[in-house]
Write a structure and sequence with these properties.
By secondary structure, the protein is of the alpha/beta class. The protein is built from 19 helices and nine strands.
């Protein structure tokens, strides 16, 4: 059965035009959702904790801002866009008392719902619209007239209109311009965690660092190693993004393509897939979720050590020096 996709013609923005939408958080996703919804003609209020550094940013953006509890109480739709590890406490302390019949509780990632960190009452709709891109891209592409693809999932449909309202929200942030894929909270959560851990973040950074270390330990200059195993990854990923693996292989030299086709599976072999399957199993049975929840409950001692160790890797120092000489990167940052 083909995947179910939805576009602008499938969504009615009027369904949320007369509703007040509370966006909880004003970080990467929060600012993009709030501003895009505002520009789509929706009534938006941003919920923050008192003293938040983002409070002035929200006001400077021309948006209404209030405490999380007051914003949630005033809203018909509450979109939670805070980090996973704080969603339970924020919900329990500030949002749960406001969850009355007829309201909609929304998320952009399914972790808190799927792993039972947040337990909404049965009389509210619980849905997800998850853009497949960082917030700054969601905002920039929207302003350019486009959109970033998104995922749609329904956890509770008390009103029997949860899907239609979620699609309207997706249209409000520009998602239906690019396409919205229907999924489930389970599938979104487990595939997202797996992708981050085994490929997008964990897998690719470990692969790049191993390549860097191999060349440096063999006596090559760290700068050459950085260019060949880290810097140029973006060039390859961009080619794949634009046209798949075939486009990348068409664009590189025949020598590179032959090396790809004959050596790649010697690095990423069946033993790697077996370890990936174990990572997926840890996600599916809740092992990873329990570990991450406990890490946060105990003050993040292991996480802080791992973060510091990663920041001190030699490739980081070499990369910082080389990037400092790339004037175009500084111009893009400005």
């Amino acid at each position: 059965m083909p995947a179910q996709m939805f576009y602008d013609a499938d969504a009615d923005l009027d369904l949320i035009k007369d509703k007040k939408i509370a966006v909880i958080g004003f970080g990467s996703q929060g600012h993009a959702h709030a501003l895009n919804l505002r520009d789509s003609g929706c009534d938006v209020i941003v919920g923050l904790y008192p003293g938040s550094r983002s409070w002035t940013k929200v006001q400077d953006s021309g948006l209404q801002v209030d405490t999380v509890a007051d914003a949630a109480a005033a809203a018909d739709i509450v979109m939670v866009l805070t980090p996973d590890h704080v969603q339970k406490s924020i919900y329990d302390q500030h949002i749960a008392p406001t969850m009355t019949e007829g309201k909609t509780l929304m998320f952009a990632h399914g972790f808190a719902i799927h792993f039972n960190q947040v337990m909404p009452p049965p009389e509210v709709d619980v849905t997800m619209i998850a853009p497949k891109g960082p917030g700054h891209l969601v905002r920039r592409v929207f302003e350019e007239g486009g959109g970033v693809p998104a995922l749609l999932a329904i956890h509770q449909d008390a009103s029997e209109t949860a899907k239609e309202v979620a699609l309207a929200y997706a249209k409000g942030i520009g998602g239906t311009r690019a396409g919205v894929l229907e999924t489930t909270f389970l599938e979104e959560t487990e595939t997202d965690l797996f992708g981050e851990q085994s490929v997008l973040c964990g897998g690719i950074t470990a692969l790049m660092q191993a390549g860097f270390e191999t060349l440096v330990e063999a006596g090559y200059q760290p700068e050459s190693a950085y260019f060949e195993t880290i810097h140029e990854v973006k060039l390859i990923v961009d080619l794949i993004y634009e046209g798949g693996f075939a486009n990348m292989r068409y664009s590189v030299s025949d020598t590179a393509e032959y090396g790809d086709l004959t050596r790649g599976t010697r690095i990423i072999d069946d033993s790697v897939k077996e370890r990936m399957q174990q990572i997926l199993s840890d996600i599916q049975d809740g092992t990873f979720a329990r570990e991450w929840i406990m890490e946060n409950q105990t003050g993040r001692p292991g996480f802080d050590k791992l973060r510091a160790r990663a920041a001190s890797h030699p490739s980081e120092e070499v990369g910082a020096e080389l990037r400092g000489m790339m004037s175009w990167l500084n111009e893009e940052a400005d």
